[in-house]
Amino acid sequence: MKNKKGFTLAETLITIGIIGVVAALTIPTMMSYYRKKVKSTRLKKFYSVYMQTIYRATEGGNISMSGEDILKSVANPDEMFEYVNTYYVPYVKFAHLSKTKVGVFAGFPDGSAMLIAKSGCTAGTACVHILFCPENKDCTQTNVIDNKNLDNLGDGKNRFVFYTTGVPGYVYEWNEKGELTTTTTPNREDALRSCKNHYRNCTKLLYIDNWEFKNDYPYKI
Description:
By secondary structure, the chain is an alpha+beta fold. The chain has one domain. The chain has helices at residues 9-57, 77-87, 142-145, 188-197, 202-208, and strands spanning 96-99, 103-107, 113-118, 128-133, 160-163. It is elongated. The model has no long low-confidence stretch (mean pLDDT 81).
């Protein structure tokens, strides 16, 4: 009979150990890449749908969806529900739509969601804010879903702020002092610095980067 050779127990254990080390080193990187890809894809899709909605609802994007024709008071869920049904529902497919204590929660078929509310502003403007969450669970927390000041809830990782009053598609940008600026097209260097200083500014950086999380993005995704 011919001798049959196999792996010894020590060799098998060493091989398993090596596989374990390689997995421990690569899996976190793969998971991080996957999370970035999912969030990037959903942000890009949301912005595309958002802009198309504005274009259709305003007959070519010539008029801002300020909501002044409907939104007469601050943090009014009934008015906001009417607003969303008027400007969004005819053009956007929602998986879920419901009132919150201050506005509206809207879930999308891909698992993302948005909160939309009016937080108040100077006379003659609607100040409608959108908080987009690539994963809807990040929009459903009690301290988030019932907070009218959505512009303060962007964290640069799970929640991103959009602004619907003024130039269609305009996204927030603050200076280093936390003051809202009027510049709508900063260069990337300014946008990156602004994102580092204030979480909510990161929407602008991502917009410039085509909704991709670049290697120098300041927050771990």
